[in-house]
Amino acid sequence: MKKTGFIILLLALFSAMSVSAQIRGNSISVDVVPDHQDWRYEVGQTAQFKIMITREHTLLNNVTIDYEAGPEMYPEVKKQGVVLKDGTLTLKGKMTKPGFYRVDVKAMIDGKEYKGACSAAFSPELLQPTTVMPQDFSEYWQRAVSEARQVPLNPTKRLLPERCTNDVNVYEVSFQNMKWNYRTYGILCVPVKEGRYPALLRVPGAGVRPYGGDIYTASQGAITLEIGIHGISVTMEQKVYDDVFNGALMNYWNWGMDNRDDSYYKRVIIGCLRALDYIEQYTPWNGQQLAVSGSSQGGFLSLATAGLDKRVTCYAPVHAALCDHTASLKGVACGWPHYFYWNKGKGQERQIETSRYYDGVNFARLITEQQKGWFSFGYNDDVVPPTTAWATYNIVKGPKEISPYQATWHFWHQEQWDEWENWLLRELGCKK
Description:
With 432 residues, the protein is of the alpha/beta class. 26% of the residues lie in helices and 28% in strands. It has helices at 2-20, 137-148, 215-219, 238-245, 264-282, 297-308, 349-355, 360-364, 386-395, 414-427, and strands at 28-34, 40-41, 46-55, 58-59, 63-71, 77-84, 88-94, 99-109, 112-122, 156-159, 168-176, 183-191, 197-202, 223-227, 285-295, 314-318, 372-375, 400-402. A nine-stranded mixed β-sheet has the order 10-11-12-14-13-15-16-17-18, sandwiched between helices. A five-stranded mixed β-sheet has the order 2-9-8-5-6, with no helix packed on it. Helix 5 (264-282) crosses helix 6 (297-308). The chain is globular and about 65 Å long. The chain starts with a helix and ends in a 5-residue tail after the last helix.
């Protein structure tokens, strides 16, 4: 019996181990490393890049690679079928004007493609955006917001008991946006303890999805409102959102680009500002600290919200998309969704003009000295080019901080997330 019990215990342990084990990372790695630790150079300097192909951190011999190198999104060198006898190759690159020099490498090993990249910054503090600010930009948006506010919020609020904690009450809320029955939905988290609190508006990246709400920040002593942008409930099954994204809302970011009043992003931006109205009127906000933050599309919406609404005291855009759309017209890396990159804007005069009303750069130009910003992005991001992220940062006149995480692509590193979270908590007065 004792022996049988011991065997059963061992089987249980092995079963638990197999369940808890997770698949992470790859055995094979393609690393591209610059010779400056901060990935930063001055215009005219030469950067040196070392390419290393490894398996289990050991160099692989006789690996065949393809690579491209040159200014970001505009490679000047393209090589295929290059054999690395010892698994390494050294390349050099330089820039004659501010920007990013990028090396992209692909290796095909055992029938699977592996890739790596490195984008080195050349005098990035000198980068300036290309987009022009329309003369009536501020007036246009002030009028749009004023017209929207003629529609009452008419809010709804539904407790989500399964998400509540001892410290935080969680609700799905909705409110009218810019037309009757044209609603914005979100997840509101409010500390249980009676009192007045700072508030954080969290704005979403591109796509269609449900939201869980920022319960953690609320547990630290702040009201949080995480909104969706598509006018549908944010608590449905994932399949609903997948179906909508691949059907009715496919490529929504391209909609209405022929006219500034028809752009899909008009209702989205107005919805962010009405979310601030909701926080002010229907939550125990303290009337002082008010933050907005998001990544990718949400980074753009953070800039738009802060630029248009001076109730915002701090904002944190992370790898902000939709910035400097017209850069590609001058042969410079442009922001997602790269509207004019493929055909260089030919026959798109109306779209070019409309894009200026929906460019994160022009909203950033409205940010004031009373609003504090924290910017973060990756140099290896191939969706939101660091060229546009740096240029947008440079145009802001108010107090600001920048914290690039060079090796990230279009994702977060854990340390980046932790820094972002701690910065917001300090600015909201929840943490010293």
